[in-house]
Design a protein that fits this description.
2 domains, nine-stranded mixed β-sheet, 4 helices, globular, SUF_FeS_clus_asmbl_SufD, SUF_FeS_clus_asmbl_SufBD_core
């Protein structure tokens, strides 16, 4: 019998506890399984494995960077896989990259974790980012190159700590990436996550936020530009199992070209017995050409009446003719008017990133996309 609630989904580190998806499951019905290159079935023996994807970390001296085995007690401590690919990635990763920001440390420059696809074949990875109590840091996950890759990333934010994460998915056009981001927030901890998805043939990012104590505050933002033939899928789950916690989710995307497909699934759970939850999730999609597809599904499960605020919204549509007319009536050419509207659509989200290098990179990428569509 299928799960009625997300809370009914059983997690496990054992791959055998998850049947191979067939595409009829709720969590896989939007994903073209044939394009996963076997990541949902398991290692296929193709040339790949260790070395197919490299991970390098650039950080200030105060930040501890280690490469550890999967038997390290700090690996896998903050989550349990909810899908088969997550369990496969945990079982078959060669090791884990562990980044630790010590207690009360304020890291000035972003910690950059560069993930590079080096050669074809399946690869699996694991990264753990740990902020000890009252630490503050910004982490950039920068993905590029060609790969068939699945990984788990744990973000463990201690009491009173604040972590900002910018995850850039700028893969080569032939790459496949299935990622799982697991966020664990301590008392009064703060997390700001920004997903930027531009490249790849298929990119599927699932982010989960869990509160371990009251007072946690999470914001999940995303920007994606999906071109012809690309599949970009973002799935969010925020589990408000603790009282007096806040969450905000906002994703914006643009699509152009034949068979461009964007998927956004937003799940928020407000648990039994909790009080003072404040949550809102929102997805907007700008459709620039014909023959694209958008699937946008916000879900809200509430198991208590003691809620401060809860809501969700989704909107997908073409450029507003009124906006274009307003600009053209003031002497702006049609194509430039179109560019201005698209820039304005993304401007606020780009400004939130807080990392100038990434902001400039994303702005330039959007300009290239607009030139291509022109």
């Amino acid at each position: 019998m299928p799960a009625v609630s997300k809370l009914d989904t059983a997690g496990s580190f054992e791959t055998a506890d998850f049947p191979v998806p067939n595409g009829r499951e709720e969590e896989w019905r939007f994903t073209p399984l044939r394009r996963l290159r076997g990541l949902h079935t398991g290692p296929d023996g193709t040339e790949g494995g260790e070395g197919a994807v490299s991970v390098a970390v650039e950080a200030e001296p105060a930040v501890r960077v280690e490469t550890v085995g999967l038997d390290d007690e700090r690996v896998g401590a903050s989550f349990t896989p909810l899908e088969r690919v997550s369990a496969l990635a945990y079982r078959h990763a060669a090791g884990a990259t562990l980044v630790t920001v010590p207690k009360e440390t304020q890291v000035e420059r972003p910690v950059v974790v560069a993930v590079r696809g080096e050669r074809p074949g399946q690869a699996f990875g694991h990264t753990v980012v740990r902020l000890e109590p009252f630490a503050t840091a910004t982490v950039v996950l920068d993905h590029a190159g060609s790969a068939t890759y699945a990984d788990n990333v744990e973000f463990v934010v201690g009491d009173g700590a604040a972590l900002t994460v910018v995850s850039v998915h700028d893969w080569g056009r032939d790459a496949v990436h299935v990622a799982y981001h697991h966020v664990s927030l301590g008392r009064d901890a703060r997390f700001r996550g920004h997903a930027v998805t531009l490249g790849g043939d298929l990119v599927r990012v699932s982010a989960t936020v869990r509160y371990t104590a009251p007072g946690g505050d999470a914001e999940l933002n995303g920007v994606y530009f999906t071109d012809a033939g690309q599949h970009h899928e973002h799935r969010l789950l925020v589990d408000h199992s603790q009282s007096h916690c806040r969450s905000r989710v906002e994703y914006k995307g643009a699509l152009q070209g034949d068979d461009a497909h964007a998927v956004w699934i937003g799940d928020v759970i407000i648990g039994v017995g909790t009080e003072g939850t404040d949550t809102y999730e929102y997805n907007r999609n700008l459709v620039l050409t014909d023959n694209t597809r958008v699937d946008s599904v916000p879900n809200l499960e509430i198991f208590t009446g003691e809620v401060l605020g809860a809501g969700h919204a989704s909107a997908s549509g073409r450029l507003d003719d009124l906006h274009l007319f307003y600009l053209q009536a003031r002497g702006i050419e049609a194509e430039e008017a179109r560019r201005l509207v698209v820039r304005g659509f993304f401007a606020e989200m780009i400004a939130r990133l807080g990392v100038p290098e990434v902001e400039e990179r994303l702005t330039a990428a959007i300009e290239r996309e607009l030139e291509r569509s022109a």
